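Today's session is about reading a structure prediction critically. Students often jump straight to the picture, but the first step is always the sequence itself: look for stretches that repeat, for charged clusters, for runs of hydrophobic residues. Only then move on to the predicted structure, which in these notes is written as discrete structure tokens rather than atom positions. Here is the chain we will use throughout the hour.
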Amino acid sequence: MNTGSDKGAQGPEAPERAEAASGAGADGEAAEGKPLGSRAPGFIQARRTLHLSWQVGVFIVGLAVVVGGVIMLPLPGPGWLVIFGGMAIWATEFVWAQLVLRWTKRKVTEATQRALDPKVRRRNIILTTIGVVVIAVLGGVYLWKFGFEMPWNIKQ
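Below is the predicted structure for this chain, in token form.
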């Protein structure tokens, strides 16, 4: 099982590993500083069995956190935050999780930049104001017609 956390580049896929380790993706984009691969302590990486056990442990802990986040999506709680926390746990050991996390960070940064654009902000403020006015008018009509009576207590 190759998790992409091997230090040396051996075999026919050596150029791909070297490219991934250098941070150059398929689109030629540079890495965000940290090299890809395992961040386990050196004495663990030195022993194959111990390293594999470490990876299994990291995977199980990350999986538990991600599953907890998925459960929190429909329930009260910070579901997406917990899911990304589980991905961060996985990213300490697995290259695929590091790449997913980098992609997610890039997309969130792009969305933040778009949201801070003055035209987009102006549009969002206008739409929010219209929404608040519509809700206020509907609430006023309800209060005018029924008063402070709850909908399930209204007798027709």
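Discussion point for the tutorial: The first helix runs from residue 14 to 22.
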